Amino acid sequence: MLAYFWPKSNIHEIRILEDAKVENVRLIDRFNSRQQIIGNYHNNYYDSSFPIVKYFLLLLLRLTGTIYLTSTHLIFIDPEGKRETWILHSLTSYVDKLPTTQHGCPLHVRTKHFLAAEFTIPKERDCADLHATLNQLKPDSYEKLYCFLYQAPNYLEKIWDPFLLATEYVRMGVPNTNWKVEDGNSNFDMCDTYPPLIYVPILTTKAMLFGSSKFRSRGRLPVLTYLHPNGASITRCSQPLSGFSARCQEDEQLLQCILKTNPYSSTMYIIDTRPRINAVANRAAGKGYENEDYYSNIQFKFCSIENIHIMRGSLQKLLETCEMKNPTMNQYLNALDNSSWLQHIKSILDAAILIARAIEVEKKNVLVHCSDGWDRTAQCCSLASLLLCPYYRSIHGFRVLIEKEWLSFGHKFSDRCGHTATSDSKEQSPIFLQFIESVWQLSQIYPTAFEFNERFLISLHDNSHSCQYGNFVGNCEKDRLDLCVKERTYSYWNYVLQNVNDFKNPLFRPQSSYASEVLLPVINSQTLKFWLSMYHRFDSSLLPKENISNTLAHLVDHTLSLNDHARLLEKRIRELHSMLDGDPTTIPTTASSSTTTTATTTTSNEDVDDSDVEKGNHHKKISLPELDSGLSETELSQTRIADSISSKLNTILKPSTLSTSDVESGFSGDYSPHGKAPLSSFILQHQSSIDTNDIPTIERIALELNSIALDWRSYHTPLHCSCSLPFDSAQRKYNCWRCGENFCARCIERGIYLPGLYSNSLAPVCKTCACSIKSSPSFADFSALVKSKSTEFIRNQTAMKLSRSMIIDQFNNDR
Length: 815
Prior knowledge:
It contains 28 helices and 24 strands. The chain is an alpha+beta fold. It folds into 3 domains: 21-37 and 50-138, Pleckstrin-homology domain (PH domain)/Phosphotyrosine-binding domain (PTB) (PH-domain like, Roll); 165-530, no CATH class; 549-569 and 697-805, Zinc/RING finger domain, C3HC4 (zinc finger) (Herpes Virus-1, 2-Layer Sandwich). It has a 7-stranded antiparallel sheet with strand order 6-5-4-3-9-8-7. A 5-stranded mixed sheet has the order 12-13-16-14-15, covered by helices on one side.
């Protein structure tokens, strides 16, 4: 099997040879087709209780199509092109060749984002070749990862928004009289999995730090990770190499220095996130936990968070539960309980709440560690910070939290996610997934406290495995510096920034008490939920038909579009009202009439209340552009005087016909996507695009009316985009603001000015509508007008500020 892949410009050009595909492949879809097909045939023609009908229905559930292979993806396309299934090779968890049946040779593919696909291939030899090829296509080194090949869309630049750890500590008030920054790790000499800059108590010395580093596993000495406004702190480290009797005076002194940074408490906690029996067992290997006889004024607590191997097995059982075929209620619930997945999530949340309560209520410092300090420690410290600080519940703050606790302090993403084929399978574990799910569980308890939504969390999980962006490549900051990921790859956070509206929670209320306070929930067994949208995201029949968050986001966008359009219509009505109430205008009675009378009218881009027009009160309100301009009232009044002079224009009414190009482009007066009546054939003559206050033509008004969709299609209606890409719970559906239909991200253009919007802001438009809009000459005039207005406003603003500075300078000189 051969597949060729070339990055070209800003797109992926995929060329597949004849022998790089497998035809007549059947994809078994257990969920998405079952309900619809069984319902149709059972209700209309057949009784599904007969065995022959059940066999016939089973065959219908198999979608026949063709598999194509590229160096990065497996692509399944059905013959009619109504469905596409794309599987990124780096997301493939395993490929299993099952025993041959009478229908062919089954190939089971499971991905790291929980897609389970079973392909039935007619020939066993083709199945064996495909199985071997898929296993070979998984990258075997960092250099072959997808992020080093990926070419992003044009709107996404290869620019990394720099994260500076020092900036986050400054936000927390560090350095101060108790804490200082230490650059002893600038060359990663002290600890190669820590950031170059670490924050330690001000009383510490370099001898203390290096001594403690040698006494801690992997050199991960206690350092500051979070400082609460009340002075209590969270520090993190790894287990001590204490064995049964070993001790380190430098480490003991360092902990006493940490204790002294908090003047409100004489004791501090050491929280070992492992079960006590595990910590005791590690003593036999020369590791273990702190000896209470050597550390004074310390309170020890153990948490029952299991190790990476237990967590990996738990996830495996959970996925087997999700893939059960037609289970009974008891079978499904018992299997879910036997996986112990939710019990592990509860243990992680309990430990985080314990830390947060010690900081907020008891005002005590807390030192957190597990074995090596990069798995359970990262989970607990980041969740405790999330509970304590509302800033981390924003989209930007959550990014900072991930950068600080997980990336800077060395969570082993490549090992835990299995980025390469050479990764040790025993090192893989869903540590980051458990953190993501714990955050989701908190968002279900406090739905108004988090700025980000479920889609953001799912996207974060998927991109930590896919290696599409360079942020999560490597096991520590040093690895990413060695790979030069910032120079060679795209940033996931830049992608989030460019699509931030997709990830916002419509229920978020910054002014609510939960959004601005410390969260200390009480977690019971009944509190936790099974995350259906994560583990069953591709099983559309199991997901809710109406997602509350998506529905609210849909309503918010639709309301925004209609309000913006309504403001423009109100403006046009006021302009027509002003024209009719002004000086008489002679309207020609025939097309050949050459007699015209000019009328002087005054129009404005600013809003004027109807009551003001009736009273003859034409005082201008300050528009949004003026509000953002930074000009004073005096400067704004001078600008309005200049605008009022240029706004007295002469209009001539004459009959005319629309151009052929406008009719073909869909923006003529006769155009109506919903069968609306054609507009009048009389148009107002075009005004110059340099006029700040333009008088619209009827052609322009028709363009404005037909460029905004009043009715939008509901999100729950389509299961697939028009490009055949299936929608799942992690993928946002976009409504085209012109036609109102649903589309996926690759079928939407976001940089289109719609004439029907008052704000002249960019709107999401499908590619079909975008091409139609751009081909209209009327739209070209509109675009020129928008640009000229922006240029003129900026020119006026600059001139006013320059005049103001000259007056101030003259005034100062006169003094």
